Amino acid sequence: MPNIYTFSMTEILAFALVLLRMAGFVFAMPIFGSNMVPAPVKILFALALTFVLFPQIGWRKLSFDVDSVMIITLAVKELFVGLVLGFLARIFFFAVSMAGEIMSVSLGLSEAQLFDTTMGGSMSSFDQFFVILASIFFLAINGHELLIAGIFQSYSIVPLSKVGLALTPFGSFGIIIETVMLIAVKMSAPILVSILFLNLAVAVVGRAVPQINILITSLPLNILAGFIVLFVTLPLLLWEMHGLSNLTANELIRFVKAL
What we know:
This protein is mostly helical. 72% of the residues lie in helices and 3% in strands.
């Protein structure tokens, strides 16, 4: 009976490299990479993914006749690729969080700040609602499975034996940020437009009836109108989230292919 616990140096090196990419991806990916998830859980999750995907990865093409400098270079490359893929996977939540922040500022609710465990910073209660809604939607469409499938496909595009990475894809980060901001404005457009027309109407009323305190009256009206428009346009926001998830997947694949 062959000894199944005997591993060659090539297998150990390949397993460590796969684990580094998985660890970087898990620590940077949305939801599971949030501060709310303990670090030991993230490490165990990355280790479990490595055990599952390692037999399917073409690690046998990796040659072991490399020096220590080459091993360090491969390790840094794998960790960097995992972190970049996890960061790109957060595009979905960046756009939703930005849209919620724009809405909260227009409604006057930006002063109520809460700690966001998903993004790791402070946000308004209105913004927190959108992030929770986006998280539920992300899990409902099996977004986590798409991310795992994407990290598995990345090994066929950027194999373990590849040492150098192309830097040209990083020049498109500006275009990605511009697209995220555009989508955020589109998601918040119904509330922005409704609040604009409401403020114009309140200004006309205040001009016609100077006895009305516009500063005190307009704030609850803006909040009421904003929530009404939000409940009416919520299906459109969910549809926009679906398109945003497709954009995230396309940008992720395009970026990996350009490395």
